[in-house]
Amino acid sequence: MELLEERIRRDGVVKAGGVLKVDAFLNHQMDIELFSQMAEEWKRLFAGKPINKILTIEASGIGIAAVVAHHFGVPVVFAKKTQSINLDGTMYSTRIQSFTHNRIYDVIVSTRFLGPDDHVLIIDDFLANGCALRGLLEICESAGATVEGIGIAIEKGFQPGGDELREAGYDLQSLAIVEAMDPATGAIEFRS
Ligand code: 5GP
């Protein structure tokens, strides 16, 4: 998506260790007009799919997913990060390795908000190694929900998550795929 690529070029900051900082418009300060246009693009890309729920993970997926849910006219559920899992069967839970914080955390979704009747579009801000997404996919599987697609704002194509999920057969639509980036010059190359 041209508009998002331009914005990443303009306001993104390339950090060492393969990290792209986009907190000026995506995950700290949030450009809601940009989110609206991203949502419209996903509506076009997932047209015809019977999506009745958006699923994301806290914290930085929530803003984008909320705008997407508004455009699709469906509820949004976010997986919560938690210290303690209660094992009484009222929660789906999984463990996720965090790319940015280099630790493992538990995430939960209440069984009240996801189930076999749901046709889910998963939305997140970044896709790197795919750990966050695999956690959300596992939660959907536990719930018996159907994953209709995955919408990612920025995929880092030099990390394996995206290509692995496409090979596994998921309809994964990333609006910008960064193929390479150089912290010394700030140069960013996108997959065309
Ligand atoms: P994964 O689980 O695919 O390895 O990483 C995805 C998660 O890590 C995203 O939800 C995002 O919050 C975070 N993340 C991964 N790479 C980056 C990055 O380059 N910049 C930022 N800001 N977050 C990232």
Describe the structure in your own words:
InterPro entries: PRTase-like, PRTase_dom, Pur/Pyrimidine_PRTase, Xanthine_PRibTrfase. It is found in: Cytoplasm. Pathway: Purine metabolism; XMP biosynthesis via salvage pathway; XMP from xanthine: step 1/1. The longest helix has 14 residues. This protein has a single domain, classed as Rossmann fold, CATH 3.40.50.2020. Helix 2 crosses helix 3. The mean pLDDT is about 95. It is globular. The chain contains five helices and ten strands. The chain has about 190 residues and is an alpha/beta fold. The strands form two sheets. An eight-stranded mixed beta sheet has the order 5-6-4-3-7-8-9-10, sandwiched between helices. Strand 9 and strand 10 form a beta hairpin. The protein binds guanosine-5'-monophosphate (5GP). The site of guanosine-5'-monophosphate has 19 residues, from strand 2, strand 7 and helix 4.
List its salient traits.
192 residues; alpha/beta; Rossmann fold; eight-stranded mixed sheet; two-stranded antiparallel ribbon; 34% strand; globular; binds guanosine-5'-monophosphate; xanthine phosphoribosyltransferase activity; transferase; cytoplasm
* Outline: globular
CATH class equals: Alpha Beta
The strand count comes to 10
What is the makeup of the main sheet? Answer: 8 strands, mixed
Instruction: Give the helix tally.
Output: 5
Order of secondary-structure elements: HEEHEHEEEEHEHEE
Please identify, by name, the CATH architecture.
3-Layer(aba) Sandwich
Residue-averaged pLDDT, rounded?
96
How would you write the strand order of the largest sheet?
A: 5-6-4-3-7-8-9-10
Could you tell me the CATH topology label: Rossmann fold
Structural class by helix and strand composition? alpha/beta
| Rg, Cα atoms, Å | 16 Å
Q: Write down the oligomeric state.
A: single chain
Give the distance, in angstroms, between the N- and C-terminal Cα atoms.
10 Å
Model regions low in confidence, pLDDT < 50 over at least 5 residues? none
Helicity range = 25-40%
Bound molecules: guanosine-5'-monophosphate
Write down the domain tally: 1
